[in-house]
Design brief:
It is a single chain. Strand 2, helix 1 and strand 3 form a beta-alpha-beta unit. Helix 2 packs across helix 3. The longest helix is centred in the middle third of the chain and has 18 residues. The protein is of the alpha/beta class and about 220 residues long. The chain has one domain: 3-Layer(aba) Sandwich (Rossmann fold), CATH 3.40.50.1820. Helix content is about 30%, strand content about 20%. GO terms for molecular function: hydrolase activity. Belongs to the AB hydrolase superfamily. AB hydrolase 2 family. This is Phospholipase/carboxylesterase/glyoxalase family protein. InterPro entries: AB_hydrolase_fold, LYPA1-2/EST-like, PLipase/COase/thioEstase.
Length: about 220
């Protein structure tokens, strides 16, 4: 399954890294492009598919996964297809970072846990795995060593802290090096600190020094 891909950032022939970008509910790639400007200059090219009707699945990500079908499976196939498209364009998974916010972070988290690849990095702003049962993970899989930035807000109105923590734990069990920070507040926002952490990860990975991308990695 394919979807129109919006692009911006470094020239694709010079970009050290591709960032597969997943917007939230009621948003579109232009929101993510605006947010990416807060990252400052990074040597990456952003690729953002757009969800049909600006939503990847209809209900809360906390509902049983089957209640979000068939949209959930369709949207995961969109991301799968995008990864394949990037590979054909010269960006294999190890040169692709996955970045999502809100519903997009939920979809990206779920993809990383249920169909893991050796991604260059993960940037997950306010999201977690989808459904009521955590996906099974293996500690010796392709996520081993993948630098991961996770950010959220303590009392976010849509994404509870416990699900962010659970998802961070699952990613750690899968071998990812997770830098998790949850700030005080009750707004559904992306903080300046979150953008700075994303910039550090993307720049470090793009420069070939992924080992120090997440300053508080565990």
């Amino acid at each position: 399954m394919t979807a129109a891909m919006h692009e911006w950032g470094a020239d694709p022939d010079r970009a050290a890294l591709a960032v597969l970008t997943v917007h939230g509910r009621g948003q579109d790639p232009s929101f993510m492009e605006e947010t990416a400007r807060r990252f400052g200059p990074v040597p990456v090219r952003f690729f953002a598919p757009e969800a049909e009707g600006n939503t990847w699945y209809p209900l809360s990500f906390l509902e049983p996964a089957e209640r979000n079908e068939p949209a959930l499976s369709r949207s995961l196939r969109v991301l799968d297809s995008a990864v394949d498209t990037l590979a054909r364009a010269g960006f294999p998974a190890e040169r692709v970072a996955l970045w999502g916010f809100s519903q997009g972070a939920c979809l990206a988290s779920h993809l990383a846990l249920t169909a893991p690849r050796s991604f260059a990095g993960l940037v997950l702003f306010t999201g977690g795995y989808i459904g009521t049962s955590p996906p099974a993970v293996a500690g010796d899989g392709p996520l081993r060593g993948v630098p991961t930035v996770m950010r959220s807000i303590e009392h976010d109105p849509w994404v509870p802290r416990y699900r962010v923590d659970e998802t961070a734990d699952l990613l750690r069990r899968a071998g990812a090096r997770v830098d998790l920070r949850v700030d005080e507040g009750d707004e559904h926002i992306i903080t300046d600190e979150a953008c700075a952490a994303a910039t550090t990860l993307l720049t470090t990975v793009a420069n070939g020094s992924a080992g120090t991308a997440a300053g508080h990695a565990t």
